[in-house]
Amino acid sequence: MSNEYFSSSIKGSIKSLLRMVGRQPGAKRLNRAMGFVNRPVGANVGVSNIQLPGSVAVYFGDGADKIYQVAQWLPVLEELHQKEEVLLVFRTLGAFKAAGKLTALPKVFVRRFSDLMDVYDDNELKLVIYVNNSRSNFQSLDHPRLVHVHVNHGESDKLSMVSNKAKAYDKVFVAGPAAIKRHQTMLIDFDYNKLLVTGRPQLDIDFKLELSPSDKLDVMYAPTWEGENEDNNYTSLDKYGVAIVEALLENPLWRVIYKPHPRIQSSTTPGIAQAHARVLELLKTANDAGAKHVISEQGNILAMFDSTDALITDVSSVGLDYLYLHPDNPLVISDRRTNREILHRDAPVAQSCHVVDADSVRNIQDLLTSALTHDVHKEQRLEMRQFYFGDLNRGDSTTRFQNVIQELISERQGKLQSFRGWHS
């Protein structure tokens, strides 16, 4: 018998053995080493030459811990899907599985860069949407035929809202005049023609209410998370959160709605975790005594706004979304750095709000009573809404978003007559 026969026989025996032992670590290593096609779950599996639906891809390269960045776009994408088929493209299995619990939109998990390029090459995709500035976005950006559009996952005055990476995308969708000014202030040698105003289509969605209105003044406290670094840390939770909730609980005519950022629940940062635990304890103790305060750690905040009479939050998209939807309602902003001049410069909305900082928190009860029951900033907030969102009314953003997507697709298709392609 030939050496090839013995080699083939031995490989066949090992392959059968690997199928029996399944996911054991040793089996995975042997399987990868020998190059078998039928590999255990988790190995790199190619996806070329598979026809996938869609003209618009939504690319997400991060893990399940950041799935909220995609989640807030899903209702908008589901509406877009009626006009331009949408395909969600994930690079991690965790995010792929998490999305499966949130939407019925078509989705694919693509681990390897070469397979990602094959997905783009082998199908009729025309435009790619990016909801964050993940480093892995640059692998997707490598494909020249598609229109690459950055939409971000919110509209806020956080430092992270403007990135030099914006130069890499074909177009950057922004909410309004404030976002344009933000880019002009922060970026050098940037082509501002990349910026297209599409508003905030998420705010056009009619969500099923997650809260029932009460006969009290419903005040939401919605702190953001601590960010990736100190420069992007805008949370009030560790500095003022407990004091804010204690002050709110002092007034029996107020119902507290505690809605922290989705990442606060799992935060291991000592100050954040401790303050979060203390706030939960305060609210649960009050509820045990007969109150009806609300704790919503993972709910849809946009589905709660219509049942809320006032908002206390930080520099984040939450405050601006509330400003858009309810400019008549009291809004309180925090400043963890206690620098009013810089706060007003970097977050202009704070000019139309009461501000909680290290100085004002000493009289937090008086501040909140004044802000919530003697609102003197209403006219300023109406002006600020114009600054952030222009003349857009509810419903306008969705129309503009969909129209701009279709215009970009049409424009790009007209430019592909002389495009050679990678494999031509």
Question: SSE layout and pairings?
Answer:
Layout: H1 3-21, H2 25-34, E1 56-60, H3 68-71, H4 74-80, E2 86-90, H5 93-100, E3 107-109, H6 113-122, E4 127-130, H7 137-140, E5 147-150, E6 171-174, H8 177-186, E7 195-197, E8 217-222, H9 237-250, E9 254-258, H10 270-288, E10 294-295, E11 310-313, H11 317-325, E12 331-334, H12 340-346, E13 354-356, H13 364-373, H14 378-389, H15 396-414
Parallel strand pairs: 1-2, 1-4, 2-3, 4-5, 5-6, 6-7, 8-9, 8-11, 9-10, 11-12, 12-13
Helix pairs in contact: 1-2, 9-10
How would you portray this structure in words?
The structure is a single chain. This protein has helices spanning 3-21, 25-34, 68-71, 74-80, 93-100, 113-122, 137-140, 177-186, 237-250, 270-288, 317-325, 340-346, 364-373, 378-389, 396-414, and strands at 56-60, 86-90, 107-109, 127-130, 147-150, 171-174, 195-197, 217-222, 254-258, 294-295, 310-313, 331-334, 354-356. It starts with a helix and ends in a 10-residue tail after the last helix. The chain is an alpha/beta fold and 424 residues long. The protein has 15 helices and 13 strands. The protein is globular and about 70 Å long.
